[in-house]
Here is the input.
Amino acid sequence: MALFSMTGFARQAGSLPDGTGFVWELRSVNGRGLDVRLRLPPGHEALEPKLRDAAASRFKRGNISATLSVKREERPAPRLTPDPVALEQALALALEVAARIPGGPAPRAESILLMPGVLRTEVPEAREGEEEARHAAIAAGFMKALDDLAVARGEEGDKLADILGALLDEIGTLREQAATLAAEQPAAHRARLSAALAELLEGERRVPEERLVTEVALLAQKSDVREELDRLAAHVQAARALLASGEPAGRRLEFLAQEFGREANTLGAKSASLGLTGISLDLKAAIERLREQAANVE
Here is the structure.
């Protein structure tokens, strides 16, 4: 099953029915939840709800920034058209003036059209359905960009799966080493306690064997790490199951990383040997790397 990262990039170019070119660029980075930020040119705001819903249906986590760039805006060419009322008034005035000039030439059409207010500029309205077709093409391009982004996040997820699997292997190996050293702790307690008593008493009198056994048992009980080791093993198993599930596992992996850290801290606190202390420190380092990588998982 695939593991998905929250980081990725996608770029999708397309053309609109009127020949306008557009480009979608999508960038995704880590986030606590899903945050989709759309940057659309003026006039495309109506697309936003549909695009947000599409992104939410594909991804569960990540900060996604989507930018739409329109390369070339092709607008209908404006045209000149006469104002009927102004034209009639201008023509009547021109004829009236011409009639007062004996032998004067008749008014010329271009002169009348140049009179203020006679001509006006009109921009043809978009043909019916043109805007819908434009929005549909842009939305289709966004869907393809989402597909590409999912592929990119999946490729990053494959790399993450390898890294996380290796870290779980390392944690499992360290846990086995800790279990071996932990089994030797009672004997180490006995030897250390016997040596301390011998030095303190300087051989004047022996401590009863029963008392020595009791003290060693108390120390061994305080430093018993079997529960911590069992929980570490269970956490490793749970993390592997999450990686294999194919479901968004980032939040649960981050929680498990916290649980790993808690057990490693307790293991170090109960350690009675330098060897076990060293393993607990190695465990903390591996768990910290696991936590950092888990923060990238969707």
